[in-house]
Amino acid sequence: MSGQADEMQGFGERRMAQGAATIRMVATVTGLAVLSAGAAGAQDFAFNVVTIEGNQRVADGTILSFAGISAGATLSAADLNTAAQQIRESGLFETVDVVPQGGTLVIRVVEFPTINRISIEGNTRIRDAQLLPLLQSEPRRAFNPVQAEADTNAITQVYASEGRINAVVTPRIIRLAENRVDLVFEVAESGVTEIERISFLGNRTYSEGRLRRVLDTKQAGLLRALVARDTFSPDRVAQDRQLLTDFYMSRGYADFEVLNVDVTLTSERDAYLVTYNIREGQQFNFGTVTVSSTIPGVDPAVFQDAIRTRDGAVYSPVTIETDITRLERLAVQRNVNFVRVEPRITRNERALTLDLEYVLVEGPRVFVERIDIQGNGTTLDRVIRNQVGVVEGDPFNPREIRDSARRIRALGFFENATVDTRQGSSANQVIVDVGVTEGPTGTLSFGANYNTDTGVGLLASYGQSNFQGRGQQLDFDLSTAETNQRLSFRFAEPQLLGRDLRGGLEFSYRQTNNENASYDTQNGRFSPSLAFPVSDNGRLSVFYAFNYADLTNVATTSSQILRDEETIGAVATNSLGYAYSWDSRRAGIDPNTGYILRFGQEFGFGDSQFIQTTAFAGAETKVLNEELTLRATVEGGYLDYTDGQSRVTDRFFLGSRLMRGFDAGGIGPRARDGDDAIGGNAFAVARLEAEFPLGLPSEYGISGGLFYDYGSVWDSGYAGQVDYDDFTARSVIGAAIFWTTPIGPLRFNFTEPLDVQARDKTRAFDVTISTNF
């Protein structure tokens, strides 16, 4: 481009505003200045002939229609000025001259050139594919300096949203033959202006580190090249204000308020300083919680038992919303329509309590006329309708409409979703408008992973959460490691038969190659399932499973037990089972405490008859102003073969996933005539853990922890031939480092065994994916 600088000319002046160069047009109306400078009084003109000069593409009639004048009309000087201005505002002309010459009015115009092509140069951080669709200037249309200025600002705003506020965009034109130009936007990219510090004023209960973890925006930290949330975004700050408000409100601070958010640039303009000025107020608890009714024939006592908010509990709007939903649903179940629940709160400032009264009132008798859905190019209408809690003809419930919007957004299929209402064909009918903006729902990845049990492996995965726009989930995973290979396929229909019934299909295959053992295994499983809710927090699933297992290549130095099990060959089993789960976190009432219970059984039939039972219980709570997280879990299982002996491919093993500080198969029954762990038909493990901040900046995402594990695996079925066949408890203590990274939450465990047996295989360090339960 530098070699063609002499060919580049600007139309009018170039203005610099916030680093963005713009073009504006300067047009003149000659002759009018002479007229206005003459006699002091106004003068009228009458023209018998109007001639137009200089136009090539725009027809005379079009220009006259812009001017709004015709031959023979009597015009004042102001009218001529208005006519010139109207022609100029069409955006088609570089200059416009309106010159009265006796009985002839001459309109001289210079047309803007035609844009031959548009290009963006100098952009390396943001691709053309992201910037070009934002431009309103188009090839083969007239160049418009005002539009070029708007396009310049649009490009500048994209760079600003990426944190590059010092980027400079300069529009240039290159003249070509036949009154054509190339429009070029030259970009001088700048570095990212990150958020250097997020601070708070007015916080007394919670530390700055705790509050920073609430916000979606993060300070620039070690992983600034990977974290996209450490740049300033006004939209994200508005979202953070709401997140901060929800955080305090759900913890009883009914008067919490974000007074203002101060955003400043450093003097070097290379970093933002964001300060939240807040007012916490006092923490309130619920006082008395009652239900009353203004509707004749409705007994409040029937509804009193449905509420879940209890006297003395910490105030939270979430619990109120949950109660209102339950009460309104109960009213529908009892055929009481058009019921509205109004929460009425009475403050007791002295006791810091809020007395809550749910009042059942009769709402307007309005019905849903129809539901209109727009914006879904891929997702089928029925997928969205399944999340709307009403159908045509139902009584209109505003709360159900708001909940519908929340459920649609929770699908994860859409970048945005709105549910609004408008007047229907009559006063007692409404139309529900559902608007969505679809987003990406599929992932395809290739990479490598590392596990301390299996070593380095390559993996490929494909996932689709909205398969063919039907809301179905499809996942495919393939991984290979030094000692094992895995293949899995999962498919799920969340609304089977149009009901809240999840249908699933799973296939998996795993092959081990001497994985911490002196033998190889092959395991396959095919399992269709159905899952459905049985309570607000409870879910039940039932399934059928076909399992295939084979034990091969047992080393000659291995135990006779394993060599005998190898002679059985491949075994195929059929089973039916169920699994029940109860999770208090589904209701989301208490943000600081969660409980989970899981229990399941699988019943083998046919050639192999067995009962396998597994159970899990976990609890988590946050104390000391939520700086310290305490977790406790208990897990166990029992396998009972009623018509024979289990094999090593069936029994339980304890590794670092279930009990930290030991190799895979590092504890439990071990053959006396070899060094092989052969697993057990029963296991039980208890885990205690505390997680706490280490004093590092919160943007690093690093915290510490201490843990204690206690458990064992036993009952191999070979009493007298193995060591540790009874319940021989082990215990281990350790420290952990938790690191929240852009690729996932990791934990590094450093362990020290307290109670081990002579033949156990211990491990002092391992790396795993961090999970709560």
UniProtKB/TrEMBL annotation:
UniProt entry tagged with the keyword Acetylation: no
GO terms under cellular component: cell outer membrane
Residue ranges occupied by any POTRA domain in the UniProt entry: 45-112, 113-190, 366-439
InterPro entries reported for this sequence: Bac_surfAg_D15, BamA/TamA_POTRA, D15-like, OM_assembly_BamA, POTRA
Keyword Plastid carried by entry: no
One GO term of the biological process aspect: Gram-negative-bacterium-type cell outer membrane assembly
Compartments, record wording: Cell outer membrane; Membrane
Keywords linked to the UniProt accession: Cell outer membrane, Membrane, Repeat, Signal, Transmembrane, Transmembrane beta strand
Xref: Pfam families: Omp85, POTRA
Protein role: Part of the outer membrane protein assembly complex, which is involved in assembly and insertion of beta-barrel proteins into the outer membrane.
Assembly: Part of the Bam complex.
UniProt similarity note: Belongs to the BamA family.
Name under which the protein is recorded: Outer membrane protein assembly factor BamA
